[in-house]
Amino acid sequence: MQVRTVSTTPFQDQKPGTSGLRKRVAAFRQAHYLENFVQSIFDTIGVPPHATLVLGGDGRYYNREAIQIILRMAAANGFRRVLAGQGGILSTPAASCVIRKYQTHGGIILSASHNPGGPDGDFGIKYNAANGGPAPEKITEAIYAQSKKIAHYRIADAPDVVLDRPGDYEIGGMTVTVIDPVSDYAGLMESLFDFAAIRTLLAGGFRIRFDAMHAVTGPYAQEIFLNRLGASADSLMNAVPLPDFGGGHPDPNLTYAHELVELLYGGDAPDFGAASDGDGDRNMILGKHFFVNPSDSLAILAANAHLVPGYAQGLAGIARSMPTSAAADRVAEALGIPCYETPTGWKFFGNLMDAGKVTLCGEESFGTGSDHVREKDGLWAVLFWLNIIAARRQPVETIVREHWARFGRNFYSRHDYEGIPLDAASGVMKLLLGSFAQLQGAQFGNLKVKLCDDFSYTDPVDGSVSTGQGVRILFTGGSRIVFRLSGTGTEGATLRVYLEAFEPDVSKHHLDAQQALAPLITIALQISGLRKRTGREKPTVIT
Ligand code: G16
User: Fold this and answer.
1) At what angle do helices 327-335 and 396-407 cross, to 10 degrees?
2) Which of 12, 219, 363, 499 has the fewest Cβ atoms within 10 angstroms?
3) What share of the chain is helix, strand, coil (3-state, %, to 5)?
4) Across the beta sheet with 167-171, what order do the strands follow?
5) Which DSSP state fits 215?
6) What is the pLDDT of residue 490?
7) Maximum CA pair distance of the chain?
8) Is the confidence at residue 488, as pLDDT, over 90?
């Protein structure tokens, strides 16, 4: 094998965000851009003798080309084997599953998650460690530091590997094992959930609709829902993965999954609806004419986990990201288990799961998962819900309303201001950070500020500290407003405003969330001056 050492100069913008490096496809196609970042990963993690790497992506535009480059670089950097998904495909949770099952030296996942794809869309890359989870901050920081001083990368001169058939292929002395991307994952799902009960539910006329949004979960949903659970073919929509997601925005929320939302809110609606994102780690759950807020979803899964075979032995604990509502905290309290509050980003859950401190984790950003892998997992969440419904034989809405009646309702909403100028966004954050003294103890109508801070987190397992994780304005009585800048966008800045109010009174649970949160929305706009600074009258997305 001919290995070339190629001289290169650093790019200064390869800082991983909330979940890996995400940029426009055009940025990744610049000469040496992908290669520099991949070499920075290999230089940082080291390549022990006989190491195996997992490699796959969500199939978006540029996936195939990037896979071939990474294979040639893996061979040149001393990997003995790469497990690659057939066609270069692996959903993010399936990649995590494969890393863990085959105990590899981690894996590289190519995805920009819910961001649009295509030649003018986004691309992304991240390294997941040997536990199957996104590399923790100390590794991503080290990769970034390396990317700023990189001087050369290594790549083998070798032809493309055929990725379309499972089997072993040779590239420069390294074996590429092309694996079926679905089977390991589907087997894991079958080991956790009561497939027989779900099959009976579906056979009894319970109608579901799963929207794969032309992204990676299509083939997974086909195998699990149709082949293994006997759902009818019309249970799936947009199930053919496309490199540009059919021109859509593969983000399972009320705005971007509108096709599914219209069905579930229309006449003759199915009983259950769900959608997943570009790389299959997010989920949205809908009942007939009913939306399940992701924060509530985590709490409801936790409260009903005893009905699911894989979790019937009990939960060690629950973790949620800071902006996620405290609905799960109430369940943890009732179950007598701990609840951890981490910064945004699945990477913060890894240590807690590895240490056996938590079983379920969740985020307001449509992510839920458990210690079965080290990523959030869209189809897992859908199956968890179906298992609960099969056991309780109640509609989604009834399950949610009964949950609120028992635990109280955490009214919750997130307002996103997407694509605003960076200086306007940082101006808002700076203003808020400078207002703490003034806000502390301030009274707004019947709401009094109890505490404001810039959230920081000390990992209880390794003691690492993460600061600057979002501005919290906490009110007496449990209401709060959180301001945070997104770490996943590629264009300008996205300012997120998270709003939460706790309501124990069941007679008020029917209220619309925006209505219930109206006083907090007014305060948020007032104290941040965001309309003036951003020129935006309304959020781009409300969930
Ligand atoms: C990623 C992270 C999540 C995070 C989400 C939103 O999700 O894995 O942990 O909650 O981004 O982050 P932000 O608010 O910074 O945009 P995904 O699905 O994009 O990988």
Assistant:
1) 70
2) 12
3) 35, 25, 40
4) 21-24, 122-128, 107-110, 52-57, 81-89, 174-179, 167-171
5) S
6) 76
7) 73
8) no
Nearest residue to 8 via CA among 36, 40, 42, 44: 36
In the prediction, which pLDDT does 171 show?
93
pLDDT at 347: 87
Question: Both tokens of residue 53?
Answer: 């790497």
Q: What is the pLDDT of residues 465-484, one digit of tens each?
A: 999 999 999 999 889 999 99
pLDDT at 477: 87
Residues with CB under 6 A from ligand 1: 18-19, 113-114, 277, 281-282, 321, 344-346, 363, 365, 367, 486-488, 496
* Buried b or exposed e, range 348-377, using 16+ CB within 10 angstroms: bbbbbbbeebbbbbbbbbbbbbbbbbbbbb
> Which tens digit of pLDDT belongs to each residue from 65-89?
999 999 999 999 999 999 999 999 9
Closest atom, ligand 1, to C-alpha of 376: 8
**Region 350-364 average pLDDT:** 97
- pLDDT tens across 274-332, in order? 999 999 999 999 999 999 999 999 999 999 999 999 999 999 999 999 999 999 999 99
Residue identifier of the C-alpha nearest atom 9 of ligand 1: 345
Choose the CATH number for 2-181 among 1.20.1070.10, 3.40.120.10, 3.40.50.740, 3.30.70.1140.
3.40.120.10
CATH entry 3.40.120.10 includes domain 185-407: yes
Nearby residues of 458 by Cβ (< 8 Å), 6 or more positions away: 464, 465
Architecture in CATH of 409-542: 2-Layer Sandwich (3.30)
Catalytic residue numbers read: 113
Instruction: Compute the distance from residue 460 Cα to the ligand 1 centre, in Å.
Output: 22
For the CA of 496, the closest atom of ligand 1 is 14
- Our CA dihedral for 234, 235, 241, 245, rounded to 10 degrees, sits at 90
CA atoms of 138 and 142, how far apart (whole Å): 6
- Which atom of ligand 1 is closest in space to residue 281's alpha carbon? 18
Q: How many angstroms from the chain centroid is the CA of residue 35?
A: 25
**Interacting residues of 44 by C-beta distance below 8 A, sequence separation 6+:** 139, 142, 143, 146
Rounded to whole angstroms, the Cα distance separating 221 from 369 reads 17
Mean pLDDT score, 450-468: 95
Nearest residue CA, atom 19 of ligand 1?
A: 113
Q: What pLDDT is attached to residue 1?
A: 66
- List the chain domain ranges: 2-181, 185-407, 409-542
pLDDT of 98-112, one tens digit each? 999 999 999 999 999
For residues 144-153, give the mean pLDDT.
Answer: 98
Atom 14 (ligand 1): residue with closest C-alpha?
486
Sign for the CA dihedral angle at 186, 190, 194, 196 comes to: positive
At residue 380, the pLDDT reads: 98
| Residue 489 pLDDT > 80 | no
CA atoms within 13 A on the CB side of 18: 23
